[in-house]
Amino acid sequence: MTGDWMRDERPRVAAERILDVAAQLYVENGINAVGMAEVARAAGCSRATLYRYFDSRQALQLAFVHREARRIGALIAQDVSGTADPQNVIVEAMLTAIRLVRRDPTLAAWFQLGDSGLAAQIAHSSEVIESLGAAFLGQAGVGGEETSRRARWLVRAIVSLLTVPGVDDDDERAMIEQFVAPVITGPRERDVRSI
């Protein structure tokens, strides 16, 4: 039985609705506890209909993470748009990402005990998340052949702080300023060898 909301809607709108329903279930039950049957039931559609939009539970989770990463990425880009210093771009981008995730229950759910491993796995293997990290590096003037590796490291540092927070906001800022930003914006490995 397909819900009325899906009959005349475009496929993109239906997929977005399914992602919204999944987000709420993730908050209520935890990421690992939500299966396709629960999402279909909450969305008012059959499992067959759900599988037309997302061919697996992992595909649904990845689509949700990518949608939210793009949204958060746009907000971060606005937040750091006037920042000129490369290290400040990295610091502010990371702190903004962490703050936005923690404030949004649908995102914070991914970093709860038991679900954080899944978040880390998706973050480390997602081309979308890596591309967003690379975009912030580009905005900070950090580029070159190591951009992809630096972007992955940037994402790992964010996931680490979301999973195991610092003592407080000041502590996290200090860690990022001291240990993350200088490494990410520092000279490339090849340049260091030539010094």
Automatic annotation (TrEMBL):
Instruction: Name the source's superkingdom.
Output: Bacteria
Q: Does the keyword Nucleotide-binding apply?
A: no
Keywords in alphabetical order: DNA-binding
Please name one Pfam family that this protein belongs to: TetR_N
Molecular functions (GO terms): DNA-binding transcription factor activity; transcription cis-regulatory region binding
Q: Which residues bind DNA?
A: 35-54
What PANTHER family does this protein map onto? HTH-TYPE TRANSCRIPTIONAL REGULATOR RUTR (PTHR30055), HTH-TYPE TRANSCRIPTIONAL REPRESSOR BDCR (PTHR30055:SF200)
- Please report the name of this protein according to its UniProt entry: TetR family transcriptional regulator
From what organism does this protein derive?
Rhodococcus oxybenzonivorans
